[in-house]
Amino acid sequence: MKNRSYTTVALFTVALLFLIGCAGATKSGDRGTPRELPSDPESSSSVSTSEGGNQLSDEELFLLEDDSDWNDGPAEEIYTVPDPIEPFNRVMFTINDKLYLWVMIPVAKGYAKVVEPQIRTGVKNFFFNLGAPIRIINNILQGKGKAAEAEVARFLYNSTVGVLGFGNPAKHHDGLNPDPEDLGQTLGVWGIGDGFFLYLPLLGPSTLRDTVGFVGDRYASPMGFVEPVELSLGLSGYNVLNTLSFRADDYKALKDAALDPYASFRNAYIQLRQSKLRR
Amino acid sequence: MILKRWSVAIAIWCLLVGTVGAGNASPTPMDFVKERIDQIITILNDPTYHTPSQKGSQRDKIWEVSQPMFDFKEISQRTVGPKWDLFSEAEKEQFTNVFSSFLGNTYIDKIQGEYHNEQIVYLKELVKEPLALVRTKLVRESVEIPIDYRLRRNDNQWKVYDILVENGVSLVQNYRVQFRSILEKEPPAELIRRLEQKLQEQNQALQ
Hints:
The complex is a heterodimer of chains A (279) and B (207).
Chain A: H1 2-23, H2 41-45, E1 48-49, H3 58-64, H4 86-114, H5 117-130, H6 132-141, H7 145-160, H8 183-189, E2 197-200, E3 204-207, H9 208-220, H10 229-244, H11 250-256, H12 261-278
Antiparallel strand pairs in A: 2-3
Helix pairs in contact in A: 1-9, 6-7, 8-9
Chain B: H1 2-24, H2 29-45, H3 55-66, H4 72-80, H5 89-114, E1 119-128, E2 131-139, E3 144-154, E4 157-165, E5 169-170, H6 171-185, H7 188-205
């Protein structure tokens, strides 16, 4: 067991070093750069809001800013993550797709029929609550003191008033809903680049950085300490199934909305991670 | 005689006030979006459409209400990107028609299938002429999904040209990436053909 954990740590460190190397790399071709948040005060003063005044968060300014130069050469470069192992990723995507459509989604739907939504929501809340230590650590690592405090407060509140985390009474209180942070985002905030795109079996789209982050988070999460490892994985699998039971139809709907589902999912994942980095 | 003149004068005056009044009452972007979405929700909740045979007419009704919300020409141009210039005028029009039908089919079908009395909360509206951002969220039983609409004012009429989901995942950008890889190797006609094929598959599935 000790040997295994040493190996994991070693792999983790190697991957981390690799990523640090990737951080400064500038690849030619359409890589683009992440859109910068507008820092020019003039742009915010010309905006009016429905709430009166024009106190906008940086994020809101970003979403409002039209890429009106979207048709010019350099601005046309959307931020993308290189995909050097695309053939492999596409195979993984197809395998995952079949797994979802033939196994996971039918099981999730069956499960949803049998188990009441309140119970499933309770389970979802319970697992989410268990993830609080990770989120707290990652907030601290990113220098987000206020969010870390909010996470602590939410954890305490939901564990007590919410009865061991099955309830989520915190959602009704404004300051107790910080955005979830994870190690992948932390690494991103530290300036470590995405690396390259990876389509993982079962877990779906990811990047090298986010995968390292996922492994790292799992290492420190309460789930990671559950023995034996089969039980730990089983519980995580159950968590995935339970969460899927709320969104069983979304997968196929998203797939049908795309002309090239692989490219669509890849881009959606990258956009989602970029938007999380901004918050 | 004098009465007739007066009544004519009053009539003209009312007409003028009426039109000026109407001109001043142009809806804000949020009002515009909310009004349309409220109509769509009414159609979704309408019990006359709750039988399977009525799904087609419900879809048509939703399309009728939602289509004026969007500027499909702008959306088509943005999703294709710089290669738009390679399209002939006929191809541009063909692409716009096919793509808008495709989007309509895809999303209306999804909304019909998945709408279970979710609530739409209108959060905020930001206006920086001629652009606007309307922030909403869809409240489902266990999760809230932020949905933002990007609008542009053309000829005094607001139209949606992009939808952002989960605080920044742009639909236009998502399609642009898909189309770009196709257009890198194939001519515009091929992209149009593939969309038409997808449209046919959809129509068959909807029969």
